[in-house]
Amino acid sequence: MTYDTEEHIPQQTRLTATGPIECDVSGFNLLNSSLFNKGSAFTLEERAAFDLTGLLPPVVNTLKEQAERAYKQLHFFKTGLAKSDFCTSMRVQNKVLYYKLVRDHIKELLPIVYTPTEGDAIIAYSSRFRKPEGCFLDINDPDGIQDRLHPFGKDKDIDYIVISDSEGILGIGDQGVGGVRICVAKASLMTLCGGLHPGRVLSAVLDVGTNNKKLLEDELYMGNRFPRVRGEAYDAFVEKVMTTLHNMYPHAVIHFEDFGVTTARPVLERYKKRYACFNDDIQGTGAVAMASMTAALQVTNRKLADVQVVIFGAGSAGLGIADQIVNHMVSHGADRDEARTHIHCVDRHGLILDDMGPVSSDAQMLYADRAADWHGVDATNLVEIVAKIHPTVLIGCSTQAGAFTENVIKTMYKYNRRPIIFPLSNPTRLCEVHPKDALEWTDYNALIATGSPFPPVNGHVISENNNCVAFPGIGLGAVLARVKSISDKMISAAVDELAALSPAVRDHRGGLLPDLETIDETSARIATAVIIQALKEGLVTVEKEDSPSGGKVRVPRDFNKCLAWVKSQMWRPQYRPLVKVEHVNAIHTHQY
After folding, report:
1. Catalytic-labelled residue, pool 114, 249, 271, 367
2. Does one domain contain both 252 and 346?
3. I need a labelling partner for 532 at 20 to 30 A (CA). Which of 55, 72, 249, 350 fits?
4. Can you give the residue ranges of the Malic enzyme NAD-binding domain (predicted)?
């Protein structure tokens, strides 16, 4: 982690959520440290101790008062992008206040600090550049990776790393170096929703060039101006990045974000057994969709073993959902090959059939239907596909707005009186069907979850299949347990716990996923489920570490006791007393 003016790096072996904080910066340097700064909330004693008395107005505010002032200031801005800029500015000035503001208004502000507004900010990254956040890893400097990471801390300073090669950003494609912002946004969600300390997460972009012609022709573009590097050179660079990250931060969980269609899956497969790593677009998206589907099946008293699923859009997200459905079925006793026969994937060539090898990837071909079964049926027509398969679940990951037409939905409804429909493409303008239309076309019998936020429809809550209800809990559990790797069964445990929290199970008009207002509890429970499963698989290493009170760390095996342990270590946006210490050298041990 970095401070804005210094290289003073807090080091700790475990998350700490309470107690005083040792600090050796003062005056302007303290006000310029986003992690230590309290602004007008510094107490009179702290102002005297840290040479702040003449730098602040005399009134001492509470964090609540500061957040209320910031919320009023936020509404001076009329566009989402302007509000995003305000929030970004606050994040680089005072992280506690930033997370307090967003947490207090999470439903309103999540679309501002994440999708869809973040997509617009990423597109305009170079032209609107102000202050850098994150780490920039350049393929032209493979031998300088360690030097580039050095300012962010030593081996025990980082718990979680979000990296992207920026090729598949938020449905808007290749954004080159601007993809650093999606890494910063996802790292922020690990704090906001998962309780990781904001100074112990690292965001890194892999600048391997870009195929975005508009960026290459933009004189203000700040990244490498050459076509995206592929093949052996790309693989060698990623290998060097991964080995360096692991060597420097051996306990950190690595989160892959928005890699391209051709790189996301191979990168995950290459490293998921070597390191504790996770691809949010594949596994996170799959986990949330699987949890929504599990809840919907529970509401309608149907069995997972009986489902037929059509996935419209067979890229990283669509195949990630397919994989998670299969993994979940296998975790619950199914044969893997048999489980795959329940999944039917559609891409730009139509339904993937077993004679389409030349135009389909190996990952897609795992879900290929038998071409012999489709003679006389137009397998490029979604209505005919639905009419033949009679799907229980229809999932959209295509970014084709309106692809789920009235004819498609009514055909599904003809064979399935409680259809499960997930138009997951985002931003909002790209969703496959509007929830209001899908409900009306099914006489309000459909169970719906979307990829972007939508208001309730006639009392029916529309859950947003936002990955932030899943990946922060998975990441938190992996961090606290210091897992060797993140297994399929750990993801499956997260799915079951998330589904168990569904309001729809108690009221069919409720959302399929828990409300964002309860995200702290949701993430803590998911983390607990992940840890307990990791214990069963022998993947936990934290018990080899010394506890702060002496002896070795012991992770509770009982769910409720483990849940209490998890909650005790979650960071929350609150000011803690600062204790003045003398600066000795550039690297310090601060319990923050």
Report:
1. 114
2. no
3. 249
4. 282-535
* CA gap 123, 176 in Å, rounded: 9
End-to-end CA distance of the chain: 12
For residue 344, give the nearest of 398, 385, 290, 285 by alpha carbon. Answer: 385
Whether residue 10 is preceded by a cis peptide bond, meaning omega within 30 degrees of 0, is no
Residues of each annotated binding site for a divalent metal cation: 257-258, 281
Same domain, 86 and 150: no
**Residue 166 in 3-state DSSP?**
coil
Same domain, 292 and 363: yes
Q: How many domains does the chain have?
A: 4
Residues 343, 245 share a domain:
no
Supply φ then ψ for residue 17, to 5 degrees: -115, -10
Please enumerate, by residue number, every residue annotated as part of a binding site for (S)-malate: 426, 466
Domain that holds residue 208: 132-275
Alpha-carbon distance of 337 to 429, in angstroms, equals: 36
Q: Is residue 352 a contact partner of residue 367, using CB atoms and an 8 Å limit?
A: yes
- Return the structure tokens found at 283: 């596994």
Backbone torsions φ then ψ of 359, nearest 5 degrees:
-115, 5
Reduced to 3 states (helix: H, G, I; strand: E, B; else coil), residue 360 is coil
99 is catalytic: no
Burial (CB count <10 Å: 0-12, 13-18, 19+), residue 584? exposed
**Token pair belonging to 204:** 């890194």
Q: Are 164 and 214 in contact (CB under 8 A)?
A: no
d(CA 422, CA 303): 18
Residues of each annotated binding site: 257-258, 281, 426, 466
Residue 90 and residue 484: Cα distance in Å, rounded? Answer: 36
Q: Is the dihedral of CA 27, 31, 32, 33 positive or negative?
A: positive
Task: Name the one residue in this structure whose structure tokens are 């800029």.
Answer: 85
Written as six digits, the tokens of 465 are: 């299949």
Report mean pLDDT in 10-residue bins for the chain, 592 residues. Answer: 33 55 94 96 97 97 98 96 96 97 96 90 93 96 97 93 93 92 97 96 98 96 97 98 97 96 92 95 92 96 95 91 94 94 96 94 94 96 97 95 97 97 88 97 97 91 92 97 96 96 92 94 98 97 80 90 96 95 53 37
CB atoms within 10 A of CB 134: 22
For residue 186, indicate whether it is catalytic: yes
pTM here is 0.91
Residues 499 and 425 in one domain: no
Name the E strands within 251-385.
Answer: 253-256, 277-279, 309-312, 343-347, 350-351
Instruction: List the beta bridge partners of residue 205.
Output: 136, 164
> Does a structural domain hold residue 102?
yes
Q: Can you read off the two tokens belonging to residue 427?
A: 């931003």
DSSP 222-289: -S--SPPP-HHHHHHHHHHHHHHHHHH-TT-EEEE-S--TTTHHHHHHHHTTTSSEEEIIIIIHHHHH
For the domain that residue 271 is a member of, what is the CATH number?
Answer: 3.40.50.10380
The Cα–Cα gap between 181 and 174 comes to 13
Q: Which residue has the tokens 């009392």?
A: 459
Q: Of these residues, 186, 272, 388, 567, which one is catalytic?
A: 186
